[in-house]
Sequence to fold (109 residues):
Amino acid sequence: MEELFEFEVHKKDEVESDFFEQFVKNFLDKNSLYWGGGYDLTKINGVISTDEEKSFDLNFIISDFVNYFSQQDKIIIKVYESQFDKIASHTFVNYKNLNLTKTEDPKVD
Fold:
């Protein structure tokens, strides 16, 4: 597994009963990604990962992620240092609810 980025999304309202099922179906499965994390009634967080063997366009994945959650109160995405240069961060300046930052790469055991 290759970790792509960490995230936290704060919802405007309490989640609907199928919110997480729709996230898996309409974002993760569509992009062949994995999510490790958690949620409560107003927030979802975690790490988005992909198979190490799979090629991917990180800019597209983050753009799709931001578009998927664009109606929410706040989106925080922490992209790992080794991946940060692969994204065109200037394309995300129009999202007032987005905080896109660089963070340390995950520790490898």
